[in-house]
Design goal:
- This protein is about 40% helix and about 15% strand.
- With about 425 residues, the chain is α+β, with helices and mostly antiparallel strands.
- It folds into two domains: about 200 residues, D-Maltodextrin-Binding Protein, domain 2 (3-Layer(aba) Sandwich); about 200 residues, 3-Layer(aba) Sandwich (D-Maltodextrin-Binding Protein, domain 2).
- The strands form four sheets. Strands 9, 10, 11, 12, 13 and 15 form a six-stranded mixed beta sheet that branches. Strands 2-1-4-3 form a four-stranded mixed beta sheet. A three-stranded antiparallel beta sheet has the order 5-14-8, sandwiched between helices.
- Strand 1 and strand 2 form a beta hairpin.
- Helix 1 runs antiparallel to helix 15 and helix 18 runs antiparallel to helix 19.
- The longest helix has 15 residues.
């Protein structure tokens, strides 16, 4: 946790708060919200504070590190002491909140927000036809980055289909010091992106939906098994040598792309800023590019489908008082994604999931990438939430361990499926 602010009528008080004390936040005299530290979160915290000052309301804002937040929010919600505004990645966590009546429907309390937000993002906050969460920050699709110098050197084109991918792998097979795809297998989570895209391209968005909804035996889906088999094949020929020794913590996977050790890297949109910051020579060389995930020719998935993080989302606590809920509704319907905050996000290279903002990209350092990511999101038939967030929180550890075994070659796809079905 970095900052704790309680604001009213333009005054700001900074107070220290321990994690043990956070469980009492839901019971204070004003509305409350918890945000994360780092990344684009300072813009969100600033926005909440401006809202409190401009509207003469009390709003307690806590900033926590990611892991601390995940630990504390479940405890607070379970005890009925959640903050008024509850942040989630939607998916399995939001589904649990709805099933346990911990959050309230937002229909009628979001103003014109639905019309402003890309539908592929908005639908992630809808459960059984009702809105329970709305996006609050930037959209983060997973994209395919590439090194044009490597492609030119080996006569390669950007892959539009999976057959193109197989040809690229065959061309680079046996080439010293160059592989098709960089992967931080040691961190495991970058492989989630491969599993999500391959499953979707093979079976469409419905292939994974049964898992999200907790259907018995849902993991035993032909598309999931095919995706796991394909990942193992890529591990044998396609991924960077010794990929299980590569981690994302220090951006080692991005460095392999920048150094020309790999032609491609499948990663989140946040890596665009990382490469510009950490590897400026590569970023400015004209060889750094980005494209969408290839089409599987015989797959059932819509080629426009994307995966990643549609955004973080706000829900409103059912345990908050009526007055606290009204403050939250006012913020969501009248203030969220206001011009000042949107400009602040764009200047930082973050993409709000909003319709008709293309003209505002002009002149920003990330104009080309923002335009690409915006078109990718706007045209998506479906935006699949990252799997580690989409599944039930109780399954996360088993999921990561099972996929690690796949990457290490110590288990089979059916072993993975059996492990996850047992959860």
């Amino acid at each position: 946790m970095s900052r704790n602010r309680t604001l009213r009528a333009g005054t700001a008080g900074i107070a220290a708060a321990s994690l043990l004390a956070l469980s009492a936040c839901g019971g204070n005299d004003g509305a409350s919200a918890w945000v994360l530290t780092g990344g684009g979160w300072p813009a969100i915290q600033d926005d909440l504070e401006r809202f409190a000052e401009e509207n003469d309301v009390e709003l307690d804002v806590e900033a926590l590190e990611n892991d601390a937040y995940k630990q504390q929010i479940r405890t607070a919600i379970g005890s009925g002491d959640a903050p008024t505004l509850i942040m989630s990645w939607t998916g399995g966590a939001l589904l649990e909140y709805v099933q346990e009546d911990r959050v309230v429907p937002l229909d009628g309390n979001t103003g014109d927000l639905e019309n402003r937000v890309h539908d592929s993002v908005w639908q992630n906050g809808v459960v059984d036809g009702e809105v329970y969460a709305v996006p609050l920050n930037d959209v983060q699709p997973v994209v395919l980055y590439y090194n044009q110098e490597v492609l030119d050197e080996h006569g390669l084109d950007l892959p539009e289909t999976w057959s193109d991918v197989e040809e690229i792998i065959a061309t680079l097979d046996g080439v010293d010091d160059v592989d098709a795809f960089s992967l931080a297998g040691g961190s495991i989570w970058p492989a989630y992106m491969w599993l999500a895209y391959l499953t979707d391209r093979h079976g469409g968005e419905g292939a994974f939906q049964g898992v999200v909804e907790g259907e018995e035996g849902a993991w035993d889906n032909p598309s999931i098994i095919w995706a796991l088999e394909t990942i193992q094949e890529l591990g044998e020929n396609g991924f960077i040598d010794n990929y299980n020794a590569v981690t994302a913590d220090q951006n080692e996977d991005a460095q392999l792309l920048a150094d020309g050790r790999a032609a491609f890297l499948l990663q989140g949109s946040w890596v665009y800023a990382t490469i510009n910051q950490d590897f400026p020579e590569f970023a400015e060389s004209g060889n750094f590019g980005f494209t969408s995930f290839p089409v599987l020719e015989d797959g059932e998935g819509d080629p426009s489908n994307i995966v990643g993080n549609p955004a973080n989302f706000w829900s409103v606590s059912a345990d908050a008082s009526e007055e606290e809920q009204e403050v939250a509704f006012s913020y969501l319907s009248e203030h969220l994604y206001n011009d000042e905050t949107v400009d602040q996000m764009l200047e930082a290279g973050s993409l709000p999931p909003l319709n008709d903002i293309e003209d505002r990209f002009a002149g920003t350092e990330a104009e080309d990438f923002l335009t690409f990511a915006n078109e990718l999101t706007a045209n998506a038939n479906h935006f699949q939430l990252s799997w580690d967030q989409a599944i039930s929180p109780s399954e996360e550890q088993a999921f990561g361990d099972a996929l690690a075994s796949i990457l290490q070659g110590s288990s089979t796809p059916q072993d993975f499926v059996d492990t996850m079905n047992a959860q």
